Amino acid sequence: MLRALFQAGIRPDLLLGTSVGALNGALVATHGPGPEVTDRLAQLWESAAGGKEVYGDGPVRQVSRAVRTGTHLHDSSGLRRRLHEELGDRTFDDLVVPFQCCAASIERAAEHWFTAGRVVDAVMASAAVPGLLEPAAVDGEHFLDGGIVNSIPVGRAVECGADRIFVLQVGRVERPLRPPRRPWDVARVSFEIARRHRFHHDMARLPEGTTAHVLPTGGGSPKDDSLLAYRSFAKVRDRIDAAYDATGRYLAEHGLDGTPS
Question: Is residue 221 classed as helix, strand or coil in its secondary structure?
């Protein structure tokens, strides 16, 4: 999606990210829009396919950690290390493009937007998936994944003054929901209802004169919602290419690809 947008000459004035969107957005905000950052992101996600930095623990170690901590299956130090390689000790003031990311505050039971401080700390908080990674501590407060409170932050973009919004979503909103059939499906479906409800609520209340383009992923599979789908990076390149093609067609159909109409 980013590659198609940049090739069409579309440049962001503001980047908002939640969870994995915070990671992607932080890199664009650090390096600026263009082919260099999209190539860098593609390499990062393709390297994740062959590595074990974040979710590579075996089941024995996962169970041991869950029993020991009572809160999470995976060690977050691999993700922090990789983020530091990419972002260093940059603060929000150092970024090329203004950027904000969302996390869920545990103590305040509230949506929190990071706009200052170290970017790595903010992204770790935004991407602290409940049950998978430990809550992230920032300045004495603890945070979980921002998807809990604001998964697709269209409303935040409006609050910040945006009148043209491009939504780079991961595909779940494109797939129909079905009643859960297994115990572990209940939490997933419940979360999907909550996140989609807020998204549709925000989309239905866009101010007059504000447009939001929900970019297509180019397809997905029901397997993407399986219990262990978060560990699978095998089709990263196929998904990148599919989203690029689909977004390119979308931009052309809506007269946003820079070609004369």
Answer: coil
DSSP letter at 136? E
Q: Are 244 and 2 in contact (CB under 8 A)?
A: no
The encoded tokens of residue 84 equal: 């530091």
Of 75-84, 141-150, 226-235, the least confident: 226-235
Which class for 32: exposed (0-12), middle (13-18), buried (19 or more C-beta within 10 A)? middle
pLDDT digits (tens, 9 = 90+) for 67-82: 566 564 567 788 899 9
Give alpha helix (H) positions in 117-232.
119-126, 154-159, 183-204
* Identity of the amino acid at 198: R
170 pLDDT tier (thresholds 50, 70, 90)? confident
**Distance between CA atoms of residues 37 and 45, nearest Å:** 12
pTM: 0.86
* Residue 252 CB-density burial (10 A; 0-12 exposed, 13-18 middle, 19+ buried): middle
Strand partners, 18: 102
Instruction: Please classify residue 85 by burial: count the beta carbons closer than 10 Å to its beta carbon, then call 0-12 exposed, 13-18 middle and 19+ buried.
Output: exposed
Residue 78 tokens, joined: 């691999």
3 state SS of 185 = helix
**Residue 165 to residues 90, 152, 157, 171: CA-CA distances in angstroms?**
26, 11, 7, 17
- The continuous run of DSSP H or E covering 150 comes out as none
